[in-house]
Amino acid sequence: MKTADLRIALFTGNYNYVRDGANQALNRLVGHLLAQGAQVRVYSPTVDEPAFEPTGDLVSIPSFPIPGRGEYRFPLAISPSVKRDLAKFSPNVVHVASPDLVSHRAVAWARKRELPILASVHTRFETYLRYYNMAWGEPVIEAMLRRFYRRCDALVAPSESMAQVLRDQRMNYDIGIWSRGVDREVFHPDRRSLEWRRGLGIGDNEVAIGFLGRLVMEKGLDVFSDTIDEMKRDGVPHKVLVIGEGPARSWFEGRLPDAVFAGFQTGADLGRAVAAMDVLFNPSVTETFGNVTLEAMACRVPVVAAAATGSESLVADHVSGRLIRPGAVRQFADALEAYVRDDTLRLTHGHAGEARAQAYSWDRINQSVADTYLRLIRQKQPGAS
């Protein structure tokens, strides 16, 4: 069997209605599979005005807005019409990308038909509760995730550090890596524009500390803000450049009244915005890979990040950036100050990060998922061990 023989049914809670790193990776994967001759059907909630056009055939799943986070939707069920579509498509492998109710149903549907099931892990859902004063519920969420992932034949994680977390949590015994790539046409140091920075009020000699991502509390906005407060108290000269949008923007603006908020950026504009930073500060612990970290590295921007899944697999401490204990505001401030005050350090670590980013090719990375599909299909064949 070859990649062209694959018929993949992909279930995800968000394919294109809100733009984030996970669904952009899924769309790139589908594009690669289609280019290799495979057939793919994507089953996901939809909205009238999605963030971007989907890659491939998208079948709408019944859903409703999540209370308190209305931009996201909760998949409800595999409706009769979806079941008929599945039966007509007749997949030979099922891929689930979010541990929601519909994915549970999809796993049951596939197991009944003895189809191989691959689950991709895109975020650390159990850690979200920390940002809503509900950390006591983490063991419960972890147990629910373990039950879901153990019913799949294999998992793929975006980084070795995240794969090790899944092993430690006993989520599955077959865990591989589906890393992430970076578009070097978009994310490149040549995208840096001093004119664009000036238009935002950032001087040529000012050091811009960047935040990149959706403006939601689970991205560590509180730690970011507390760290900037420390730097102000220490009298460290800097500017804050925030790239992104989200429901916590007003809170973030209130905490950082002197910051420059450039809003949502995409394509070449996003590459220009990232290259405009002098250092990226990523305090989040929820990422399984850290797309924003890789994008900054590709733009020759050193990174100060939480020593957590994702960033640990990308950033070499004291080589291409700094890895700091999660939540350690004082240490974050000291690491950022070192970059603010030392131009040579920024340049040296930026070059090291760019060299590391060159290893991430989307085609090679996505083919590894196709190869995993093929392996799981072989293992399901009669006589396979």
TrEMBL record:
Pfam families attached to this UniProt entry: Glyco_trans_1_4, Glyco_transf_4
**Mind listing the UniProt keywords for this protein, alphabetically?**
Transferase
**InterPro entries listed in its UniProt record:** Glyco_trans_4-like_N, Glycosyltransferase_grp1
Question: What does the record give under GO molecular function?
Answer: glycosyltransferase activity
Q: Which residues form the Glycosyltransferase subfamily 4-like N-terminal domain?
A: 20-185
UniProt keyword Transferase present: yes
Q: Which SUPFAM superfamilies match?
A: UDP-Glycosyltransferase/glycogen phosphorylase
Q: Can you name this protein?
A: Glycosyltransferase involved in cell wall biosynthesis
Its source organism is Novosphingobium marinum
